[in-house]
Automatic annotation (TrEMBL):
Protein name: G-protein coupled receptor 4-like
G-protein coupled receptors family 1 profile domain residues: 19-196
Membrane topology reported for the UniProt record: Multi-pass membrane protein
Residues that span the membrane, as ranges: 6-28, 40-60, 66-91, 111-129, 135-156, 176-199, 215-233
Top-rank lineage group of the source organism: Eukaryota
InterPro entries reported for this sequence: GPCR_Rhodpsn (IPR000276), GPCR_Rhodpsn_7TM (IPR017452)
Length: 268
């Protein structure tokens, strides 16, 4: 394990582990009050816990190569689950705006739990297929790339539906847009570099070498911290305060610029 990757793992563990546990507990309290939206975020945070537990093993620097090998396999199951639940969050936001009547009838915890189980099953299927076949790089590339067009489609559809939505309050619109932007940024900055690298390897028919993936693994290690920001946008009060402060800063800057322009005009 490289020095940079070791340092990133320590930072993510010390900051992300306790905050993720607190976020899961807070979101679980919302589920008990029949709020369905946090179910996918809870599973996303559970996937982050799996990744951070594997990081603990890496930081401990076990002498057994077998322990390190299996922890790496489990880590990528958590990574695939993280990508899957990112798609679920984007799809849920899209259905709330674009298909409100259909979503209202399907809006129950049982349906969300069933979808979550399907995501975990697909992750294990990807794990088995990737391990038992000779096309490991291609299989992982396909499973990591498929969510990208889905995220773009759901985000574009949500943006279009929000522009015509009258019943949705401006605060709710900002919260939905903020969530989708964060999901897209997370995938683009943290997951897409690994996808591009896997594409290059598959095109050149090169074997998978763990040492060559250290740089891209370093990007993925920040994933649990990025998901904690999603938790902020699932809490209405915290998201509204953050977005309001950003808007106030923007308005203040515009007022200062207009005031300077007015003073220049008066001096002329």
């Amino acid at each position: 394990m490289g020095h940079a990757s070791h340092m990133i793992s320590c930072i993510v563990i010390w900051i992300g582990f306790p905050l993720t546990l607190l976020a899961i507990y807070a979101l679980y309290s919302l589920v008990r009050h029949d709020h369905v939206a946090p179910v996918y975020v809870i599973n996303l945070l559970i996937a982050d816990l799996i990744q951070m537990c594997c990081m603990v093993i890496w930081v401990a620097d076990h002498r057994s190569s077998m322990v390190f090998y299996f922890s790496t396999l489990i880590y990528y199951i958590g990574v695939m689950a993280s990508v899957g639940f990112m798609v679920c969050v984007a799809l849920e936001r899209y259905l709330v705006i674009a298909c409100p009547l259909w979503y209202r009838f399907r809006r129950n915890i049982k349906f969300s739990v069933q979808v979550s189980i399907m995501v975990w099953v697909l992750c294990f299927i990807e794990f088995l297929v990737a391990r038992l076949t000779n096309v490991f790089v291609i299989v992982r590339f396909i499973f990591l790339l498929l969510p990208f067009p889905l995220l773009i489609i759901f985000s574009a559809g949500t943006f279009k539906a929000l522009s015509a939505a009258i019943s949705v309050t401006p605060k709710e619109k900002r919260r939905i847009l903020g969530t989708l932007v964060l999901v897209l940024l997370k995938y683009t900055l943290l997951f897409l570099p690994l996808v591009i690298w896997l594409l290059e390897m598959s095109c050149r028919c090169l074997p998978y070498i763990a040492d060559d993936s250290r740089l891209y693994l370093s990007f993925l290690q920040f994933s649990p911290l990025a998901d904690l920001v999603l938790y902020v946008f699932m809490r209405k009060g915290a998201a509204d305060k953050l977005l309001a402060s950003l808007c106030c800063c923007r308005m203040t800057g515009e007022e200062e610029v207009s005031q300077i322009d007015a003073e220049e005009v008066c001096s002329v």
